[in-house]
Automatic annotation (TrEMBL), chain A:
It is found in: Cell membrane. This is Polysulfide reductase NrfD. The chain crosses the membrane at residues 12-31, 51-74, 86-105, 125-143, 164-186, 192-220, 241-265, 285-305, 312-336, 356-377. It comes from Desulfosporosinus nitroreducens. InterPro entries: DsrP-like, NrfD-like. It comes from the Bacteria. Pfam families: NrfD. Belongs to the NrfD family. It is a multi-pass membrane protein.
From TrEMBL, chain B:
This is Sulfate reduction electron transfer complex DsrMKJOP subunit DsrJ. The gene is dsrJ. It comes from Desulfosporosinus nitroreducens. Gene3D superfamilies: Cytochrome C3. It comes from the Bacteria.
From TrEMBL, chain C:
It comes from the Bacteria. It comes from Desulfosporosinus nitroreducens. PANTHER family: PROTEIN NRFC, PROTEIN NRFC HOMOLOG. PROSITE patterns: 4FE4S_FER_1, 4FE4S_FER_2, TAT. Keywords: 4Fe-4S, Iron, Iron-sulfur, Metal-binding. Residues 146-175 form the 4Fe-4S ferredoxin-type domain. This is 4Fe-4S dicluster domain-containing protein. Transmembrane segments: none annotated.
Length: 386, 160, 267
């Protein structure tokens, strides 16, 4: 089936070349980091994780969100999602691969990565994260490829995939739960030491992931003859999921704010004070966080009111929700977890250009993979339609 | 077989390209490394101590595995003494045991670093970074790059 | 030659697997010869203990010079580099003021002198170390004598341990440390490679030689080191009879570094 990605329109090739160029720049930046050490990033002794790990966290959510299509379609026989399920699975695969790449570029000694397997450490959450991420990648590859292959031949999917599909549902929840446990189990990092961390992660994932998927569907509809939602309202159903997930996410966040501020325990509120108001005169995250807050409410409003039926307003709403979630999870949550540091000092973090280029490179790899996988899926569908 | 001819032709071309270095070097004399096992440092030692921690044959074949074992035992298990197959005891130390005999003989390299301000970041100090000649002679020949010397080094005492 | 592509690929794969498998079996057998007749032992002078611990007697550190001498002794011995940019900083033992060392819940009426009096800080070698739990490769591990040690050979540089440590005791080699080691290189301890985490190791290399840690030796009695498990050790006597405090005891990590405040006598 992969050969379908090798023939395409001129626009397709321009897009692929563009992505390859960005990947090349990212690779170049990574070589600089590889040769000179992580000193070329903005990370420090105090803020020891930055943009990379934050992207990893955000993308685990995007990967897990495929379950929002798989679960209604396979478990509740929700036929409307029939044409979109494959797109969800084919979004999950690049998302997991980007997660693994972001972990990889974050390592100080990447050549030793196999030590994680050579010296397995069942007490470390990172160990389980590796298992669930690799497992999820495998599951989605197998399920996506087999179901699409069967569809191409006009046959029903083989029986043995069904249990794997069912397995993928709890597995998707597990990848984001385990990722939340990476942070939520650390003593002394008060922003992360929260029992609803995993719930927050899942809520924000089920808002941002399907939102990205809807936008991808809009693009698919524009650039190909394949319509993932031919008047059946699958997208409006997804919009409902995005809306409620985002409301839950904001609600969970407010719970965090209440506990931290009403209890008035200084350690618990310090990182939140830093995010929203600045601490000891350090305010670099304040405008960003308020932007995210405004976008979160704007997004919810646009999706609650009838504006959700309007193409342009819906796009704006979805973009607001994605951006709000990205700022919260793909940047602030990780960075502010380290602020103030163990000595109650505020040491700020800002990514360097090199770091940003590597990040863009990884995203470009992801975009290329999405392009290829979607091209395959769409070609198969177009072939069937004609 | 569909397009069998083309497949086999390309396979043969691939194999030929892949093996060019072997054919290119065939029949050419390439002198092996001359490993000095009888250096001045070793000759100065009393006869009873001239023997390495294990026999030269064993060391030639297994020194990497032995070093790995030493590393695990010393760093992780706090066992810093090695008892060899003859029952003789040695301190586990790359620097103080191995390099006592196998240090570079030629130039004495003072283990003094440059002023950090004038040294460019990200570049290791060359005075520290070189593999001792004894190790390098074989490893260069077989194009193996051990990473020991990015942390361990020959101290001044060993190189005099 | 009447095989189709599928069969061809299958056979090629089988031959490759056979080749790789047999080479693995052969090398697997060869590996067994290595351990032959060899044994390992502790160094004869190795100091035994069940749980090494340190008491910092703040009354003994009168001047800045007292403190800096101790820091210097440690950092020189272990080839700890000095980076011009604090972002890349590496510290094994350093000083911070009371206010920040014992962060949280301040008495606002404490006078400035107390708030800003300097304290020695280093890895606490916790009994329940969160860093050891976090490490995905067991590159950081707890020795039977309680020391939380680092295996620089194994560290992959993921920095999960730095996130897990509630005491900020860990440093990462963001850059090659070698050009930034000041003065002469100490022959007694290796330098580090870029991309690994490091921290205080309670001088286990000196304990194996029957010596006290470098900081303790240099401290003129300000740092007391011993086995907390031994009822007759000095650290145990101080900890059991005098008022000592530890950093963030509420987290349950059970730090092994105790601070004796208010002097030796009146507590």
């Amino acid at each position: 089936m992969l050969e379908k990605a090798l023939s395409g329109s001129k626009r397709y090739w321009i897009w692929v070349t563009l992505l390859l160029a960005v990947i090349a720049v990212g690779l170049f930046a990574y070589m600089n980091q590889f040769n000179n050490g992580l000193g070329v990033t903005g990370m420090s002794r105090d803020v020891s994780w930055g943009l990379y790990i934050a992207q990893f966290t955000f993308l685990v959510g995007v990967a897990a969100s495929a379950v929002m299509l798989v679960l209604p379609y396979y478990l509740h026989d929700f036929k409307k999602f029939g044409k979109m399920v494959i797109l969800g699975e084919f979004l999950a695969i690049p998302a997991v691969i980007m997660c693994i790449l972001f972990i990889f570029v974050d390592l100080g000694q990447p050549m030793r990565i196999m030590n994680v397997i050579l010296h397995p450490s069942p007490r470390s959450v990172m160990f389980y994260d590796m298992i669930v991420l690799c497992g999820y990648l495998l599951i989605n590859l197998v399920v996506g490829w087999t179901t699409l292959g069967a569809e191409r031949k006009g046959a029903p999917s083989p029986k043995w995939v069904k249990p794997i599909i069912y397995l993928s549902i709890p597995w998707a929840v597990s990848i984001h739960t385990v990722t939340a446990f990476l942070y939520a189990g650390l003593p002394g990092r008060h922003l992360w030491l929260s029992a609803i961390m995993a719930a927050r992660f899942l809520a924000s994932a089920f808002a941002a992931g399907p939102a990205i998927l809807i936008l991808l569907c809009f693009i698919v509809k524009k650039v190909s003859k394949f319509d993932p939602d031919p008047g059946v309202g699958a997208i409006q159903s997804l919009v409902k999921i995005v809306r409620y997930a985002m409301i839950a996410n904001v609600f969970f966040y407010i719970l965090e704010l209440f506990t931290a501020f009403y209890s008035n325990i200084p350690e618990y509120s310090a990182p939140l004070r830093y995010i929203f108001f600045g601490l000891d005169g350090h305010t670099s995250l304040v405008p960003i966080m308020w932007t995210a807050t405004a976008l979160a409410f704007l997004g919810i409003a646009l999706l609650v009111f009838p504006t959700r039926k309007n193409g342009a307003a819906l796009t704006v709403g979805l973009l607001s929700i994605i951006t709000a979630n990205w700022i919260d999870k793909g940047m602030i949550l990780i960075v502010a977890g380290f602020v103030p540091n163990s000595f109650e000092r505020v040491i700020e973090y800002a990514p360097t250009l090199n770091e940003i280029l590597v990040t863009l490179g990884v995203y470009a790899i992801g975009a290329l993979l999405i392009t290829i996988l979607y091209k395959v899926a769409i070609s198969v569908r177009e072939e069937k339609a004609s | 077989m569909y397009k069998g001819g083309k497949i086999f032709a390309s396979l043969i071309i691939f194999a030929a390209l892949f093996t060019i270095p072997f054919f290119y070097n065939m029949g050419k004399v390439n002198a092996g490394p001359d490993v000095a096992l009888n250096t001045a440092a070793i000759q100065q030692l009393p006869a009873s101590e001239q023997q390495c921690v294990e026999s030269p044959e064993f060391m030639r074949a297994n020194h990497m595995q032995l070093l790995n074992q030493w590393r695990e035992e010393a760093v992780r298990n706090g066992q810093t003494v090695y008892v060899n197959s003859q029952g003789k005891e040695f301190e586990i130390s790359l620097q103080d045991t191995c390099l006592k005999c196998h240090a570079t003989e030629s130039a004495s390299k003072p283990a003094v670093l440059n002023n950090p301000v004038s040294t460019t970041a990200g570049v290791s100090n060359p005075a520290l970074n070189e593999s001792p000649e004894f190790c390098a002679s074989c490893h260069d020949y077989s194009a193996v790059k051990p990473l020991c010397w990015s942390c361990h080094f020959e101290p001044k005492e060993a190189t005099k | 030659m009447s095989i189709n592509r599928r069969q061809f690929l299958r056979r090629a794969g089988m031959i490759t697997a056979l080749g790789l498998g047999s080479s693995f079996i052969i090398s697997g057998f060869r590996k067994k010869e290595v351990a032959e007749a060899a044994g390992f032992a502790k160094a004869p002078k190795d100091l035994p203990a069940k749980r090494w611990a340190m008491v910092v007697d703040m009354s003994k550190f009168k001047t800045e010079a007292d403190i800096n001498g101790v820091i210097e002794a440690c950092h020189k011995l272990h080839n700890v580099p000095k980076f011009p940019n604090t972002k890349d900083e590496i510290k094994w033992i350093w000083k911070d003021d009371y206010h920040h060392t014992f962060a949280g819940g301040h008495n606002e009426y404490l006078d400035d002198h107390v708030l800003h009096s300097p304290f020695m800080v280093l890895c606490n070698h916790c009994e329940n170390p969160p860093c050891v739990k976090a490490c995905p490769t067991q590159a950081t591990f707890q020795r039977p004598d309680g020391i939380v040690a680092m295996d620089f050979h194994r560290c992959i540089g993921c920095r999960f341990c730095m996130g897990a440590c509630p005491f900020g005791a860990r440093s990462f080699n963001f850059r090659d440390p070698r050009p930034f080691i000041e003065g002469e290189i100490s022959p007694d301890y290796p330098t580090r490679t870029p991309g690994v985490v490091e921290k205080c190791n309670f001088c286990y290399e000196r304990l194996a030689d029957g010596l006290m840690p470098a900081c303790v030796e240099k401290s003129n009695g300000g740092l007391i080191f011993g086995d907390l498990d031994d009822p007759n050790s000095e650290v145990r006597k101080i900890v059991s009879t005098k008022f000592t405090i530890r950093r963030k005891p509420e987290l349950g990590t059970q730090p092994s570094v105790y601070y004796l405040v208010g002097g030796g006598e009146d507590a």
